[in-house]
């Protein structure tokens, strides 16, 4: 295998083929749809959030920049909504535990 054909793990300007682009688009759309459908966050630990965000950031590099920007905005809006729910729940549990 030629070195030129191997993508660097840290290459931000990846040139994805059409199949990779379609797969990345489908994966991101699925992630966004899952976020939109959630009334509460499904993650229990911070690492689960980090993994989800990391997977999205890796996939978003494989679509055209304009599309990537729109998908990022949509993803971020939904993540912020779920973060707010998660934080409120965390605060409520902490308050209940302290007896306030």
Q: What is the mean pLDDT? A: 84
Enumerate the spans where pLDDT stays under 50 for 5 or more consecutive residues: 1-7
Strand-residue proportion: under 5%
Order of helices and strands: HHH
How many individual β-strands?
0
**Could you say which structural class the secondary elements and strand pairing correspond to?**
mainly alpha
Report the helical percentage. Answer: 55-70%
| Gap from first CA to last CA | 64 Å
Count of separate DSSP helical elements = 3
Choose one word for the global shape. elongated
Whole-number radius of gyration? 17 Å
Largest sheet: none
Describe, in plain words, how this protein is organized in 3D.
By secondary structure, the protein is mostly helical. It has a domain at 18-31 and 44-94. It has helices at 18-37, 46-60, 65-98. The chain starts with 17 loop residues before the first helix and ends with a helix.
Secondary-structure blueprint:
Blueprint: H1 18-37, H2 46-60, H3 65-98
Helix pairs in contact: 1-2, 1-3
List keywords for this structure.
100 residues; mainly alpha; disordered N terminus
């Amino acid at each position: 295998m030629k070195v030129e054909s191997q993508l660097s793990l840290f290459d931000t300007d990846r040139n994805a083929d059409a199949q990779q682009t379609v797969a990345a688009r489908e994966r991101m759309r699925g992630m966004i749809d899952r976020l939109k459908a959630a009334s509460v966050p499904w993650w229990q630990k911070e690492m689960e959030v980090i993994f989800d965000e990391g997977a999205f950031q890796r996939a978003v590099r494989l679509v055209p920049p304009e599309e990537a920007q729109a998908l990022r905005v949509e993803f971020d809006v939904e993540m912020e909504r779920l973060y707010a729910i998660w934080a409120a729940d965390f605060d409520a549990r902490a308050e209940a535990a302290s007896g306030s």
